[in-house]
């Protein structure tokens, strides 16, 4: 029997790796992929909670999470597309218009 | 019926508001009608009030309670007794005549509506001063007339001399008013009342009280009386605060007639008479009043001997005559002082308006040595001026004789040790008064014209709107003396105590007549018979002449003692140091501080998205750690 | 199932998912990253299967792999990113990022070590009961989710539309 904490550790590890990747990479699209990694880590956590508490609510939540993640990927990519089309920039550290 | 007397105050106020707000947009004719009619309305209602007072009633009415706070109750109310009735008549009647005169005098002036507005405001303030039944209304009116005087003296504000004169008048007035305010405060602290009817019964209770100042015990009533007198000195242009009145001649001549002859400058005398219970209890204060009055009147008369500007001579004459009024009050003959106020209003206003008429004809020229022989071309002005001069010289039959004689008799017959000295000074001044007044008459109206023939052709008599008031005032100057004011005022003003037998009054009367006639004869001799004498006299006594011509150098003294040091401090210390360094340092320094702080914090926002993400994560970690540790 | 096999599978998933995600974030080539992401998603679907959530597995494969990842590949293709010679992968402040991330991970590990594991586990789950739950208790979020999807669709189209300026000229 695998304890719940192991799945949660797995989820935490994946989430942190996704977080580190989001903060480190310059490429905008890779940043979006790291967001997807984070989402999936959270889905694993929800699903494991659902399994260990024998409650189907966790799976419903995963459903919603997947749907919302899909929407967010759409919008994110659209923004990146518009950005690249207008300015030709596709690296995050070159977009500094909102600098103080 | 009593509450309708507030209309006396409201009519001029309405005239002021009307003219100041919409005077610009309506024709001058409407402006002048509004100004004159408002004063006429006041006069009519005042006559009703005076009629009631004649029948022996005193009117007191409180309109509105302004401040009600524990012990302090200040209300707007009026008290019309015999004294107020006299003042009401003077202000309204002479004021009305001067308004009519101004319609002609100020014709065509671009500031016409403003002039009438301010003149109405002045009458309102003066009426408030005389009609008030408490010290606060007195002070309010006091300050307001000072303010209107400033407005009207500096009426032609484009001229630097005029605006400077206005400032000088207001500032010198303010210095006196400071003492006045201190007097009112001191009085209030001790009697806790401000209405006249509440104060006067409590004054005898204050006798003997002293105030301890820096170790000296000063009698309280004397101190109050002297402080109040400070205000009178400033307002009525006595020594040492007389310097503003000659400069005030920069204003239009009707203003000089109304404010600086008949009404505002007599407010000091009115105040002393109104508060006579206070003055009556302090010998020292009465002595100060009398001696100040005597010295001022002599002093101003000597200056007037050598001046060349017609209005300035009459201004010094005003200072001198008010000195007489203060002599009367100082000798506890308040009735005589008010009597002289009453007659003086008529003849002094007449003198000023005559001078205005001459100015009108001479295209603004005022130097009497540029005029001459005007009586042929300006008969009405000449005759009224002659009547006024005879009155001021104290010739029997005219009103000035009666009032001046009362004062000199009170001085002579008083029990005080300095009484006879003041009488002597007063009689000499009477001679001087006659001299300089007839000097104007003879130099300007007799003899040959000293200017160019074209100017002489331009000389014309003034239009009827200006001469009719002159005639009315001349008639008044003659007849008002026959109505015994001191007798009328007896219910409110105590009679003076005479320490000399009544027969000596004839002697005193004769002496003053001789003084007056002597003055006239000498003036006639010097200026008509032998006109070279004056030049020779000036050369022989050139030192004295120079001092008199420069008005005893008082203005220069004040400039040296007060004006220049103040300006020096203001510029060097206050402006350079306090203003620029400290205040501007703070005012500029705070934004600079904020800016610098902002500059320090600014680099946090780099615009890099991931850096913000790192900050967020760090924040979450810290937050969770804090929560978990708790 | 045999606990040992479970643990073997768990270890395998742990290692592979970790390596795959590191590969996603550390690849030079974007397409490589995309494919590593694909394998990652399939592994996650396998974990769902392990947790007795078959419906989720199917949905994961259909939506994520078939939808989102395809979208990523299309986007990379459309954007025509010119591969610069030796372009930098990481931002300047990556050290700060790494440290913060490790701190985060450490914090999570410390916290999650204390989680207790309950005994009764989900035996089986079927779509029927999932659907019953979805359409009764979670009906409102379901409807709102449909709205969200609609808006995301419209928004995506509007943002990524070619403006008339882009159409001509360029």
From TrEMBL, chain B:
Keywords: Membrane, Oxidoreductase, Transmembrane, Transmembrane helix. It is found in: Endomembrane system; Membrane. Pfam families: Proton_antipo_M, Proton_antipo_N. Its EC number is 1.6.99.5. It is a multi-pass membrane protein. Its main location: membrane. Residues 133-432 form the NADH:quinone oxidoreductase/Mrp antiporter transmembrane domain. The keyword Disulfide bond does not apply. The chain crosses the membrane at residues 6-26, 33-55, 75-103, 115-132, 138-157, 178-194, 214-234, 255-272, 284-306, 313-339, 345-368, 380-401, 421-445, 466-489, 509-529, 612-628. One of its GO terms (biological process) is ATP synthesis coupled electron transport. It comes from the Bacteria. One of its GO terms (cellular component) is endomembrane system. One of its GO terms (molecular function) is NADH dehydrogenase (ubiquinone) activity. Residues 66-116 form the NADH-Ubiquinone oxidoreductase (complex I) chain 5 N-terminal domain. This is NADH-quinone oxidoreductase chain l.
From TrEMBL, chain C:
This is NADH-quinone oxidoreductase subunit J. Belongs to the complex I subunit 6 family. Its EC number is 7.1.1.-. One of its GO terms (molecular function) is quinone binding. It is found in: Cell membrane. It holds the Pfam family Oxidored_q3. It comes from Thermodesulfovibrio yellowstonii. One of its GO terms (cellular component) is plasma membrane. It catalyses: a quinone + NADH + 5 H(+)(in) = a quinol + NAD(+) + 4 H(+)(out). The chain crosses the membrane at residues 7-26, 33-51, 57-81, 93-115, 135-160. Keywords: Cell membrane, Membrane, NAD, Quinone, Transmembrane, Transmembrane helix. It is a multi-pass membrane protein. The keyword Membrane applies. NDH-1 shuttles electrons from NADH, via FMN and iron-sulfur (Fe-S) centers, to quinones in the respiratory chain. Couples the redox reaction to proton translocation (for every two electrons transferred, four hydrogen ions are translocated across the cytoplasmic membrane), and thus conserves the redox energy in a proton gradient.
């Amino acid at each position: 029997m695998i304890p719940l904490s192991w799945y949660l550790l797995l989820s935490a590890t994946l989430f942190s790796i996704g977080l580190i990747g989001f903060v480190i990479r310059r490429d905008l699209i890779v940043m979006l992929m790291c967001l997807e990694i984070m989402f999936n880590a959270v889905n694993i956590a929800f699903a494991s909670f659902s399994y260990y508490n024998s409650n189907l609510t966790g799976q419903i939540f995963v459903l919603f999470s997947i749907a919302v993640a899909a929407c967010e990927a759409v919008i994110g990519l659209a923004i990146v597309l518009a950005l690249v089309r207008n300015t030709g920039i596709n690296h995050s550290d070159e977009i500094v218009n909102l600098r103080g | 019926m009593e509450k309708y007397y507030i209309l006396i105050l409201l009519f001029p106020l309405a005239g002021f508001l009307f003219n100041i707000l919409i005077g610009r947009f309506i024709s001058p004719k409407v402006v002048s009608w509004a100004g004159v009619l408002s004063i006429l309305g006041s006069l009519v209602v005042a006559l009703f009030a005076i009629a009631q007072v004649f029948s022996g009633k005193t009117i007191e009415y409180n309109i509105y309670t302004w401040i009600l706070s524990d012990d302090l109750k200040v209300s707007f109310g009026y008290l019309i007794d015999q004294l107020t009735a006299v003042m009401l008549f003077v202000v309204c009647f002479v004021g009305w005549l001067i308004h009519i005169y101004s319609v002609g005098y100020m014709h065509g002036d671009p500031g016409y509506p403003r002039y009438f507005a301010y003149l109405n405001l002045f009458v309102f303030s003066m009426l408030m001063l005389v009609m008030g039944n408490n010290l606060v209304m007195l002070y309010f009116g006091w300050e307001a007339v000072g303010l209107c005087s400033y407005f009207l003296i500096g009426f032609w504000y484009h001229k630097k001399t005029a605006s400077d004169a206005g400032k000088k008048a207001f500032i010198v007035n303010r210095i006196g008013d400071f003492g006045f305010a201190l007097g009112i405060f001191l009085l209030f602290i001790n009697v806790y009342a401000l209405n006249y009817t509440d104060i006067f019964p409590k004054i005898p209770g204050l006798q003997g009280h002293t105030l301890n100042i820096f170790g000296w015990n000063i009698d309280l009533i004397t101190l109050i009386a002297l402080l109040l007198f400070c205000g009178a000195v400033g307002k009525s242009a006595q020594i040492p605060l007389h310097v503003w009145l000659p400069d005030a001649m920069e204003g239009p001549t009707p203003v000089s007639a109304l404010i600086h002859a008949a009404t505002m400058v007599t407010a000091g005398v009115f105040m002393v008479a109104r508060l006579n219970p206070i003055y009556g209890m302090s010998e020292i204060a009465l002595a100060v009043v009398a001696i100040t009055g005597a010295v001022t009147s002599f002093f101003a008369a000597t200056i007037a001997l050598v001046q060349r500007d017609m209005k300035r001579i009459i201004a010094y004459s005003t200072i001198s005559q008010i000195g007489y009024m203060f002599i009367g009050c100082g000798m506890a003959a308040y009735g005589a002082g008010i009597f002289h106020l009453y007659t003086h209003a008529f003849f002094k206003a007449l003198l000023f308006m005559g001078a205005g008429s001459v100015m009108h004809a001479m295209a603004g020229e005022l130097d009497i040595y540029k005029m001459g022989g005007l009586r042929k071309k300006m008969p009405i002005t000449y005759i009224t001026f002659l009547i006024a001069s005879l009155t001021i010289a104290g010739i029997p039959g005219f009103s000035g004789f009666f009032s001046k004689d009362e004062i000199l008799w009170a001085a002579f017959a008083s029990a005080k040790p300095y009484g006879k000295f003041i009488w002597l000074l007063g009689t000499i001044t009477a001679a001087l008064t006659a001299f300089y007044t007839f000097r104007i008459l003879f130099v300007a109206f007799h003899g040959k014209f000293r200017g160019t023939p074209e100017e002489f052709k331009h000389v014309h008599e003034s239009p009827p709107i200006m001469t009719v008031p002159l005639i009315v005032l001349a008639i008044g100057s003659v007849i008002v003396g026959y109505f015994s004011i001191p007798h009328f005022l007896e219910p409110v003003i105590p009679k003076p105590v005479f320490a000399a037998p009544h027969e000596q009054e004839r002697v005193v009367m004769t002496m003053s007549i001789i003084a007056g006639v002597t003055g006239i004869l000498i003036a006639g001799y010097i200026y008509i018979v032998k006109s070279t004498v004056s030049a020779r006299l000036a050369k022989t006594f050139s030192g004295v002449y120079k001092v008199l011509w420069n008005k005893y150098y008082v203005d220069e003294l004040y400039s040296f003692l007060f004006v220049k040091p103040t300006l020096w401090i203001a510029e060097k210390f206050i402006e350079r140091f306090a203003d620029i360094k400290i205040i501007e340092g703070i005012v500029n320094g705070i934004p600079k501080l904020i800016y610098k702080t902002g500059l320090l914090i600014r680099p946090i926002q780099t615009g890099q998205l991931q850096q913000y993400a790192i900050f967020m994560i760090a924040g979450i970690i810290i937050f969770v750690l804090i929560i978990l540790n708790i | 199932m045999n606990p040992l096999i479970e643990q073997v599978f768990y270890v395998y998933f742990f290692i592979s998912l970790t390596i795959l995600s590191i590969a996603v974030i550390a690849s030079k080539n974007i397409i490589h990253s995309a494919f590593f992401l694909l394998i990652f998603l399939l592994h996650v679907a396998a974990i769902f299967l392990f947790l007795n959530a078959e419906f989720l597995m199917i949905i994961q494969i259909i939506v994520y792999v078939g939808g989102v990842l395809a979208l990523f590949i299309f986007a990379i293709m459309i954007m025509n990113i010119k591969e610069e010679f030796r372009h930098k992968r990481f931002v300047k402040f990556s050290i700060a990022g790494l440290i913060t991330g490790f701190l985060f991970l450490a914090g999570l590990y410390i916290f999650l070590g204390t989680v207790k594991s309950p005994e009764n586990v989900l035996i089986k789950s079927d779509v029927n009961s999932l659907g019953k739950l979805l359409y009764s208790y979670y009906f409102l979020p379901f409807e709102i989710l449909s709205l969200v999807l609609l808006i995301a669709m419209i928004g995506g189209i509007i943002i990524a539309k070619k403006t008339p300026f882009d159409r001509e000229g360029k």
